[in-house]
Amino acid sequence: MYHVVIGVDDDAEHALACVEEVAKMPGDASEKQVTLVHSFTDNPSGASATQIRSIREAGEYLDEQGIEYDVNESSGDPADVIIDFAEEEEADLILIGGRKRSPAGKALFGSVTQTVILNSGRPVMVTGVANRA
């Protein structure tokens, strides 16, 4: 079984790009296990991760492909949550959707993708909406 941890934010297009990449990976659907990880940084309404459109659409796609998945929700810094979860679960791969930002935007606001790449001890794959078929 190949375990992929996908960091999912509120962007449904990025989430779909990530799960489409999992479906393209070598091996049968039964050989793949996905965990969709969402970290709430602000959740005043008390929503569950499964109520978020990006999680729902990614899950629906994985169901259609016959790929097993579960959802992990947490709170805190998204990069730390993704890295810690992948380490705890001994994931084979972390998959995240990259965003196009200017160098100034990255310096001012940071980058979850950049932090995961630099601080994870696990392989990291970055995909973007532009890579979608």
Describe this structure in words.
By secondary structure, the protein is an alpha/beta fold. Helix content is 39%, strand content 24%. The chain has helices at 12-24, 53-65, 78-88, 103-109, 112-119; strands at 2-7, 32-40, 68-75, 93-97, 124-127. The protein has a five-stranded parallel β-sheet, with helices on both faces. Strand 2 (32-40), helix 2 and strand 3 form a beta-alpha-beta unit. Helix 1 (12-24) packs parallel to helix 2 and helix 3 runs parallel beside helix 5. The longest helix is centred in the first third of the chain and has 13 residues, at 12-24.
What key attributes describe this structure?
alpha/beta; 39% helix
Overall structural class, as computed from helix and strand content, comes to alpha/beta
- Strand fraction equals 15-25%
Percent helix, as a range, is 25-40%
| Overall radius of gyration | 14 Å
Strand-and-helix sequence, N→C?
A: EHEHEHEHHE
Mean pLDDT, to the nearest integer, reads 88
- DSSP E strands, number: 5
- Give the helix tally: 5
Main sheet strand line-up: 3-2-1-4-5
Give the overall form.
Answer: globular
Question: Which runs of at least 5 residues are low in confidence (pLDDT < 50)?
Answer: none
What is the terminal-to-terminal distance?
Answer: 26 Å
Biggest sheet: strands, sense, closure? 5 strands, parallel
